[in-house]
Amino acid sequence: MRILxxxxxxxxxxxxxxxxxxxxxxxxACGTVHPPSDGAMADRLxxxxxxxxxxxxxxxxxxxxxxxxxxxxxxxxTLKLGxxxxxVLLVPALFGLPVSEYAAKSVKQAVVGTGGATKDQIGIMVxxxxxxxxxxxxxxxxxxxxAICHGHHADTxxxxxxxxxxx
Length: 167
Known about the structure:
By secondary structure, the protein is an alpha/beta fold. It is built from 5 helices and 5 strands, in the order βββαβαβααα. It has a 5-stranded mixed sheet. Helix 1 (41-59) packs parallel to helix 2.
């Protein structure tokens, strides 16, 4: 199964692709979509939309995981992030991909072992768990962390559905 992890942002949206087979994850690719920082909101969202479409077309994932939005102190910032998140949730769904959402704390726990992990700790563990990856940004590392989290959750769900582990 090929998994696309997405870390939504209006300025920078990280993406990461991993392959999952029998509980083992392998790094495929990662990067960052950079919508223009100026201009109309609609143009910025369109650029984000087009960037995520390009990633899906290039890497052909089977499923997607998206990090949930946290609440900022500034309601305007939270609303803008919500716009970006809506695009990031919509695009994989338009391609017929199942999309799962994960709280930032769950992603950190899956990758680092603690929900209070720092960006540096996430980056170190992503590089450890996925040999050969070298994310170009914290956003790409976070997206790979989402993909790792989804890989673990999806593998567990499949095992339970198949009756493995049910005792």
